[in-house]
Amino acid sequence: KAIELFDAMNDGKIKAVWIMATNPVVSLPDSEKIKTALEKCPFVVVSDCIADTETTRLADVVLPAQGWSEKSGTVTNSERRISRQRRILPSPGEAKPDWWILKEVAQKMGFNEQFDYRHEGEIFKEYSEMTALGNETGKARDLCLIGLTKLDEKGYGELTPQQWPVLEYQPEIIEQRMFTNGEFFTESGKAQFIAVEHDKPIADTSVEFPLIMNTGRIRDQWHT
């Protein structure tokens, strides 16, 4: 968890951190503690599409990432539908995709064979193959992309929206609901409901301060 990670960093247990696609000095609670943790960390790398943020100011190395309209890949929404994200703008300067940056660093560290990707479609294919491990053909599990494991670069480029589990490629958009058979992926096969108690915020509203501010969130912008 992010909070525990920064607690460990504050205690000197983490010597290096690579932060991608987030600005924790703003998005996490207790920003002063987060700043202190990053200042204590011997080596901080930040990948971001914005050069000057509260977190990049504390970095030893800043890597130029692509913005949402510059990258290609996939996006999965809350109804389990995977859609292709296709770039619509060229990248400025030396900005690169996150997967390419990770690949280059890994290869410099000697992991050439494990990170020999030429295209993001190869990563998606490997991901699909991993979801198929331990899954039987014809049996729907919560995440299974067996039907996408044969995609080549052309097929990935033309990928239509797919809703998992994908046991066979879906040429048309389909709707499939999970758990309509009353069976769940638990040991008992039954749904598990856990009652929780609400923890009130430390600072509650009052006559003097009657409002609570909460930062907004959209698909590509989380609190920062």
Your description of this structure?
The strands form three sheets. The protein has a three-stranded parallel sheet with strand order 1-2-3, with no helix packed on it. A three-stranded antiparallel sheet has the order 4-5-6, covered by helices on one side. Strands 7-8 form a two-stranded antiparallel ribbon. Among the domains are: 2-64, no CATH class; 73-92 and 119-163, no CATH class. A hairpin with a 2-residue loop joins strand 7 (217-218) and strand 8. The chain contains six helices and eight strands. Helix 1 packs across helix 3 (31-40). It has helices spanning 2-10, 24-27, 31-40, 98-108, 120-132, 153-157; strands at 16-20, 43-48, 61-64, 73-76, 81-85, 162-163, 217-218, 221-222.
Helix content: 10-25%
Radius of gyration, CA atoms, in whole angstroms: 22 Å
Largest sheet descriptor: 3 strands, parallel
- Overall pLDDT score: 90
Outline the low-pLDDT stretches. Answer: none
How many helix segments? Answer: 6
Q: Terminal Cα separation, in Å?
A: 18 Å
Shape: globular
N-to-C series of helices and strands: HEHHEEEEHHHEEE
Total number of β-strand segments?
8
Structural class: alpha/beta
Fraction of residues in β-strands: 5-15%
Strand order of the largest sheet: 1-2-3
